[in-house]
Amino acid sequence: MKIVKLIKIALVFLTSTFAFGQVSEIKNNEKFEYSETGLNDFVVTEIQNKKKEDIYDKTLNWVKETYKNPDIVLKMQILNEKIRIDAIATNLASINNNKTKFNINYIVEITFKDNKYKFGIVSLIVQNVKDLKTMQNFKTDKKIIKYWGNTPNDIEVYFNNLNDNLKKYISETKKEEW
């Protein structure tokens, strides 16, 4: 009887140790960066002292001020929960030492919680064919680097800047004086 009780206690202890141990290993990415398996899916950005409703409203305003045709790029809105943007980054991809440039059609999804938002990249499609988000070894394979050049770095810079601009927009408090 004691052995069964000890086994149950050990199982509970081991289960909770593994479950909580895995949670502590999950790390929020602060920047977009290519790894061996492709571009990380999302970054979580902290915004101090802001309710998710305020972050959502400011993000909608940011989309309206950032994009030339905001009504066209806004593909989904779930009030105070989620926004999906489908847009084009002009001449972001290049091949053969920048001799040929391509637009990248991207989809980003932004979700909201109090004091933070998650900026996720759903896809990065070049020429309606290749999803650059999931391209393996994009920054490390010499053949790929020779063909695509600085495209991986340019993509990282583009989306990190886009996210930084959103964070600044949400964080700033504008006071208009007449």
Could you walk me through the main structural features you see in this protein, from its secondary elements to its overall organization?
- With 178 residues, this protein is an alpha+beta fold.
- The chain has a single domain, classed as Alpha-D-Glucose-1,6-Bisphosphate, Chain A, domain 4.
- The longest helix has 24 residues, at 2-25.
- The chain has helices at residues 2-25, 52-66, 70-73, 142-148, 151-171, and strands at 34-35, 38-39, 42-46, 74-78, 82-95, 100-113, 116-126, 130-131.
- The strands form two sheets. Strands 3, 4, 5, 6, 7 and 8 form a six-stranded antiparallel beta sheet that branches.
- Mean pLDDT is 81; it is low at 4-27.
Q: What count of structural domains?
A: 1
List low-pLDDT spans. 4-27
Relative helix content? 25-40%
Instruction: Estimate the global geometry from the Cα principal axes.
Output: elongated
State the end-to-end distance.
Answer: 81 Å
Mean pLDDT: 81
- Report the count of strand segments: 8
**Strand residue percentage:** 25-35%
Q: Supply Rg.
A: 21 Å
- Helix tally? 5
Spell out the helices and strands N to C: HEEEHHEEEEEHH
CATH architectural arrangement: 2-Layer Sandwich
Features:
178 residues; alpha+beta; Alpha-D-Glucose-1,6-Bisphosphate, Chain A, domain 4; six-stranded antiparallel β-sheet; two-stranded antiparallel sheet; 5 helices; elongated
Please describe the topology of this protein.
Layout: H1 2-25, E1 34-35, E2 38-39, E3 42-46, H2 52-66, H3 70-73, E4 74-78, E5 82-95, E6 100-113, E7 116-126, E8 130-131, H4 142-148, H5 151-171
Antiparallel strand pairs: 1-2, 3-7, 4-5, 5-6, 6-7, 7-8
